Amino acid sequence: MKIRFYSRANCSLCIEAWMMLQLVKEDVHLDIEEINIEENDEIHEKYVLRIPVIEYKGEVIQEGRIDYPTLLEAFNS
C-alpha cells in the first residue's frame, strides 16, 4: 500500500515517525513516499505546524506523535 509521509529536515518527531513506519513495514507492505514540506510552499503552509503527517488513501492517518497501534490498525482495515 502506498502512503505519504510529510516531514522536513532537523525534525525529531519526523525521525521518530520514520522509525515507527519502519517497524510497521515488518508487518505490512508499505510503499512510502517521503515528502519534504520545505520543497513546496503550498505543502509547507498546510503542514508546517502538523508534521510529521502520515496520509493513506488521501486521509491523514496520524500527525505529530505517531504510534504503532494506530498505524497498524489503519493499514489493516
Question: In summary, what is this structure?
Answer:
InterPro entries: Glutaredoxin-like, Thioredoxin-like_sf. The protein is of the alpha+beta class and 77 residues long.
Domain count: the total is: 1
What percent of residues are in strands? Answer: 25-35%
Order of helices and strands: EHEHEEH
How do the strands of the widest beta sheet line up side by side?
2-1-3-4
N-to-C span: 12 Å
Shape: globular
Classify the helix fraction into a percent range.
Answer: 25-40%
What name does the CATH topology carry? Glutaredoxin
Average residue pLDDT = 95
- Which spans of ≥5 residues are poorly predicted at pLDDT below 50? none
Count of extended strands: 4
Description of the structure:
It is a single chain. This protein is an alpha+beta fold and 77 residues long. It has one domain: Glutaredoxin (3-Layer(aba) Sandwich). It contains three helices and four strands. The protein has helices at 12-25, 41-47, 68-76; strands spanning 2-7, 31-36, 53-56, 59-63. The chain has a four-stranded mixed sheet with strand order 2-1-3-4, covered by helices on one side. The longest helix has 14 residues, at 12-25. It is globular, with a radius of gyration of 12 Å. The model has no long low-confidence stretch (mean pLDDT 95). Pfam families: Glrx-like (PF05768). This is Glutaredoxin family protein. InterPro entries: Glutaredoxin-like, Thioredoxin-like_sf.
